[in-house]
Amino acid sequence: VTWDEQRAAAAVQTLMHDENVPPMSIDVGAAVLAGRRGAQRRTAVYAGLALVAVLGISAIALRPAGHHRTPQPSTASPQPSRPWTAAAIQPLTCTPAPFGEHPDQDPIIGVDPTGRYVLANPGLQGVKLARYADGVPTVFDVPKGLLESAAINRAGDVAGSSTTVGDVAQSLNTAHDPPFSVWVYRGGELRALPLPAGYPRAEGVVMNGRGDVAATVRSGNTSAVALWLAAAPDQPRVYPTGFAGHVEAIGEDGSVLANPGPGSPSSQLASRLWSPDGTGRDLTVPPGWTSAEAWAFNDSWAIGYVRTAGPSAQRAFAPARWNTLTGEVQVLPGTEQLNQAQVPGLNALPTGWFVAGNGNGRYGGMGLRGAIVIAPDGRVFSLSVPGGTETQYGIIKWISGDGRKMLSGLRDATQANALPRATIWSCDPGR
Amino acid sequence: VRTELEQEYAEYVRGRLHVLKRAAYLLCGDVHRAEDLVQTTIIALYRHWTRARRADNIDAYVHRILLRKQIDEQRRGWSRVRLVADALDQAAPPATDVDARITLRAALAQLPRTQRAVLVLRFACDMSVEDVAATLHCAPGTVKSHTSRGLAALRRRMPLDELTGERS
Asked: With CB atoms 3.0 to 4.6 Å apart as the test, which of A22, A189, A264, B9 could cross-link to A260 if both were Cys?
């Protein structure tokens, strides 16, 4: 490159950056709606039975359509510790109300299992966090100024990972990971947790009730699980995953779950569970199923789903749980017919509830057609979006153990720039 | 794409919209076509978001969509010409290099498509040679040669050296 060329390049770069781009009416919300319409057209061919019909039929234990061999409940759970069977679907009546001081500006990002403590991210900017205790907020600055993830536990402590805008910007032009910080906010004070040597990046922080913190740590394409025990926060443990995965949950005893992500070998078909002593093992995939993922701990169970392989229209999945002490696995009988093309979203919550809806992937969104929620005892409910409108959807972040309270975001699909409105639901699930 | 993925998508698009607009404007030289180009690009990005978000370089992925959409738009030619009754009122840019920028847009419009794309990606989007190569699915050496030829062509059409001298 000649000196003249460098000067010309600098001039062109300056001129281009100084370009006064005229105003354009780009509408991100319209793009989302247009994209959805396109996606719906593509998946219309797969749309068979309605979800409600599927669940209704499943409650009387019909075998699923298609050529996949679906396991009988008795083979999936040879020694059940207690009956766990889906009941017939019933409507769940809920009344939504705004949550927090600024429901339209402070979307909920985390809820502790008791529902007493709620974590919100004002403006989703990642600059500040609002920690609600019994509905009363305390706002604090995110260390380094750019939040990556945060979690709140039943003691009201907050853990998170963050970095700086400048580091992220610089990393875009280099092959280096931006340096992250992991921290705990407890009693109004922040405390940094040391990252394990060789891992500059930390993502997806989770925390249990006693304050143990886990996160995915990365260096380039190498990832591992880091665990900071509350009793020894300065000495993080590192669990190499051997696959491109991410931490999903931490149990009250310090057990950690990680799930394979994009780039993982196809042979990695199940979540990995590390016991408190650091012993790692993959969750058992019950006979007749192809893969297994768990997303939360509930008492001594890891809860998630099992799935068959094949095209999405023929892929079946069902809620499942694994006993972390005995290794026992149970598939919820009566829901084997859940079809991923019809119900792409399923999530498991730490209170033992499952959420299935037309959200995406594991998040279990409450879509425009509502959602299905499954109680820890197997009762199945259909939940409608508020007011019967077809323009609101959201993500259910928390359901109380008795099913009488829910916290979620609620987004108006017609508003391009609207944040998900923090919403609390009062529900009547019966008995 | 739903819920949190949508949120993630919207955050990304909003964060990069200014870069996309600038790139589209410089590629098209026309605000209306640029507007259409950005809108169709982000719609396409929505449909491919689950794949795009896993890309090693999301920006490269998005700019690839942008360039493809521009090519598609050019192929459609007059079928998509917009009828505008009057020129939109636009405030005069406050900067001092107005003439230079107008000249640059005109000069860019006369460059071969690939040269124009390379210059816009490198200097308007601040992408490295390697990232541009990844975006265009070509070798870094090809990017360098397009850059060199494109700059040479611009220098023939406008006094870039003088401009640089005035600025330094």
From this structure: A264
